[in-house]
Specification:
295 residues, Spore Coat Polysaccharide Biosynthesis Protein SpsA, Chain A, UDP N-Acetylglucosamine Acyltransferase, domain 1, 6-stranded parallel sheet, 21% helix
Length: 295
């Protein structure tokens, strides 16, 4: 997910990426050390009080306009031209059927007049997708301090939407931008659906070795160094780098890197990295370094 998000920043004037992490943050740091295309630093959120306090942890590191991206969604949006924005910020939005689940924006004359986090009654169908551009970060940090000081919580947490709304009350002008793709990745089912959407847009991408007796049903992704023999892969299957598959059928699934899968038939499955699977059938969800053997 982080790789997809950072790919969308390539070509922009990105000075630095700051990752806000918590539990298992060392995994993010290890990944970023070899895979992040930008200079990066890390901030740890030790007390989980919500989005706004997490962002406030970066106040000593931010001196320029900031792009805030929540890492639990994959999105498409036109991020070019942000430096020439004629406002104090821009929030990316998408129309939704049930706005009660999201933070939403009320827009009049191309400007946001109101932001509401998870409104009990619909006030707008424009959900804010978790991508925010703010030109004056110090004003945002001051607004976060304000909502924390008056204990303005929703469900026990301090939300970024309330801090941005405080900025609007103080005179800030925010515009909205469209989001052609907004794919949630909060559950296993959502991750698999998002993977299928992305594969459907990109088609086959084969970087590994396809041996004898292999049938590929598009769309399929096969990572570098992967080896597949006597198997059927696809549709909507992603195979990680260095993974070895033989005598198996894999569809509607994501298989992590450096796995070994033999004599199995799985679909709608999420297989973590460096996992060994033999003799499995049906739906299978396994974390990293797992081992599943069925006789």
């Amino acid at each position: 997910m982080l790789a997809h998000i950072l790919d969308r920043l390539i070509g922009l004037s990105v000075e630095e990426v700051i990752f806000i992490t918590g539990h298992l943050g060392e995994q993010v740091e290890a990944w970023a050390a070899t895979s992040c295309p930008f200079p990066c630093r890390f901030v740890i959120q030790r007390e989980l009080r919500g989005q706004a306090p997490a962002i406030a942890l970066t106040r000593e590191l931010i001196t320029h306009p900031m792009l805030i991206i929540f890492a639990d969604t994959i999105f498409d949006a036109d991020l070019s031209g942000l430096e020439n924005l004629d406002a104090d910020g821009l929030l990316f939005v998408r129309e939704v059927d049930d706005p009660r689940r999201f933070g939403v924006a009320v827009v009049e004359d191309d400007l946001i007049t109101r932001l509401v986090e998870k409104p009990p009654e619909p006030v707008s169908n424009l959900a804010v997708v978790g991508v925010y551009y703010v030109t004056r970060p110090n004003d945002l940090f001051a607004a976060i301090d304000h909502i924390v000081a008056r204990d303005q919580r929703v469900g026990g947490e301090f939300y970024l939407a309330d801090a941005l709304q405080e900025m609007i009350v103080r005179g800030a002008r925010f515009r909205v931008g469209p989001t052609p793709l907004w794919a949630d990745c909060g559950t296993i089912e959502a991750v698999l659906e998002t993977n299928a959407t992305l594969l459907g847009r990109s088609g086959n991408d084969i970087r590994g070795t396809i041996g004898s007796g292999v049938t590929l049903i598009p769309p399929v992704f096969v990572g570098e160094g992967a080896m597949i023999e006597q198997s059927t892969i696809g549709p909507f299957a992603s195979i990680g780098a260095g993974t070895k598959i033989s005598r198996s059928d894999i569809a509607m699934s994501i298989v992590g890197g450096h796995c070994e899968i033999h004599e199995s038939a799985i679909r709608d499955s999420l297989i973590g990295e460096r996992t060994q699977v033999r003799g499995a059938r049906g739906n299978l969800n396994v974390s990293d370094h797992g081992q599943v053997t069925l006789e």
